[in-house]
Amino acid sequence: MASTQMGVVRAPGRVNLIGEHIDYCGLPVFPMAIQRSVRIAFDARADREVQLGNRDPGFAASTFTLTQQIPPARAGDWGNYARAAGQALIQRFPSLRGIDALVESDLPIAAGLSSSSALVVAMALAILHANGVTMAPLELMDLLARGERYVGTAGGGMDQSIILGAQAGCASRIEFHPLRLTPTPVPAGWRFIVAWSLVHAEKSGAVQQVYNERTRSSDEARRLLARRLGLPESTTYPALLEAGSVEELLEAGSTLAGQFARRFRHVVTEAMRVGQAEAAMAAADLAAFGRLLDASHASLRDDYEVSHPELDQLVELAREAGAAGARLTGAGFGGSIVALCPAGRAAEVLAELEARFYAPRGAAGAAGRYAFSAEPSGGAEVIRA
Ligand code: NG1
Question: Disulfide check for 335: which of 194, 201, 265, 368 has CB 3.0–4.6 Å away?
Answer without folding.
Answer: 201
